[in-house]
Amino acid sequence: MHLTCTVVKVVMVVGMLMVMTPNSDALSGKTPPGPGLLGSFTQLKRVVSDFFRSRSAAEMISEKEGGLYQLNLGLSKICFINSRGFRDEAFLEKYHLFSDRGVESNKKQLPEELMQWRGTIRDNGAASEEARAFVNSTLKETSYLRTTVETQIEEAIAFFDDELTGAIPSDLVVPKMIFREHVLDVMTRIAFDTAGHRNTISGQWQFQKFFEDVDALSNSVLFQPGFISTVLPNTKVDDYETNLVGVAKYLKERAEEAIYTNRETSLVQRYSDFFLKRESSIAQPEDGWRLMYDFFTAGVNTVPEVITWDIYYLASDLDLQDKIRQEMKNFGTDVTYDDRTSLPRTMSFLTEVHRLRPVATLGIPHAASADGTIGGYAIDKETLIIPNHWAMHNDPADWQSDPQVFDATRFLKLNGNDLTFDSDKARIVTPFSVGPRSCPGQEVAAGPSF
Ligand code: HEM
Ligand SMILES: *[C@@H]1O[C@H](CO)[C@@H](O)[C@H](O)[C@H]1NC(C)=O
């Protein structure tokens, strides 16, 4: 077994050396370093085989020298950003150039009859600005988070507690499934202000079918037609269509119901109110479900994955588990989200999980809306820009101890005699990315996973 692995590795390394001829004009300092046209197609196969979520793809790309690495696929170009400096230049300083999602030529590939069912995640320009303005006034707004979202999350946690207590051991074998149901419940409460419940006769989770559709969808969301399928040979369009329409119809119905019964604390009702006042020519008051579509697909797999890693590391280190339990015990009363700053060990531990196991290893692709530069390199209009969070979190220059080792104390520092959380160091850890197009669900995600 070991031998085969080594053989495969050697073959791969040799293969890679062969295709690593540089982009033709990289030598004149114009395009970012990369393997050139022929090499790009060869490498793409490996990057795509376990695309975007893949740590091995991220590692492979980060091995290449320099902060940028570009695959040149003829008309399509994919530029990976491996360093924080270049990432900040693109997503903060030059966000107006590098905050688009899909590019126009890709978008057109979505069949006409499906256009009405899509979410907002690929919107660019004014449409995405509008969605962001709404998010800024809700999911990014402290008082809304405190009063509404926190209550909804607490209710979901109480419900989750009951479910766990009543669970039969075989249900607990796949913890990630249980976390997923929980997160789905949290999001249903936030979006529609309705509680999840089980069917008393079948015992089935109320939104089981929906959940399965979302699950399939979020696994394939990056492979959706018209997103990067120009470079992906075997996108499963049929499955994707079924899931997309299934999820969209379900959300649209729930949204109509929430608005019809005037559930004021539901996010879709807020959306409706927001755009009634704003009189936008783009976002209509009844479009809230499109945004919910993105929230569900983006949230249902990510948060449970983080919680699963949290549990994994706690389970594999009893000493750590004790220390964290002790810290919470010492704190006294029921720990809430607001108390997190007084729990340095817990915060350091959670940050370390985010650092070493960023869920969106290679983020969600951005696209260049016009010709521009990053780090002095020319980036053509419509180039996909992919931030390599894994590489940024593992840059040896940032860490004293080996970045590849899990160290739950990495973000602790002594302040006099007090152990405190090193929030400056934690700022390097950016699993939600940065800038105006960064994750709108960051604060929501922090709720259940804290
Ligand atoms: C630990 C959990 C999560 C992680 C690590 C995460 C990470 C990310 C990242 C890296 C992006 C891409 C940002 C960029 O392109 O610059 C993103 C986008 C997004 N996330 Fe999250 N996310 C998480 C949970 C959630 C949750 C719970 C929600 C919904 C409430 C959510 C909703 C979204 C949406 C809608 C986008 C697309 C934003 C846009 O295109 O403008 N995410 N997320
Ligand atoms: C939303 O808030 C962020 C952070 O304050 C800001 O950078 C962005 O421009 C805002 N977006 C809109 C559309 O208001």
> Overall mean pLDDT score?
79
Radius of gyration: 23 Å
Shape: globular
In total, how many beta strands? 8
Largest sheet entry: 4 strands, mixed
Assembly type:
single chain
Distance between the termini: 40 Å
Binding site for heme: 439
InterPro entries: Cyt_P450, Cyt_P450_CS, Cyt_P450_E_grp-I, Cyt_P450_sf
GO molecular function, one term: heme binding
Cofactor: heme
What can you see in these coordinates?
The chain is an alpha+beta fold and 450 residues long. The protein has a domain at 102-300. The chain contains 19 helices and 8 strands. α8 packs parallel to α19 (442-449), α9 (175-192) crosses α14 (302-315) and α14 crosses α16 (344-356). Residues 1-28 and 221-235 have low confidence and may be disordered. The structure holds protoporphyrin IX containing FE and 2-acetamido-2-deoxy-beta-D-glucopyranose.
Q: Which properties best describe this structure?
A:
single chain, 450 residues, alpha+beta, four-stranded mixed β-sheet, two-stranded antiparallel sheet, 19 helices, 8 strands, 52% helix, disordered N terminus, binds protoporphyrin IX containing FE, binds 2-acetamido-2-deoxy-beta-D-glucopyranose
Provide a brief overview of the structure.
This protein has 450 residues and is an alpha+beta fold.
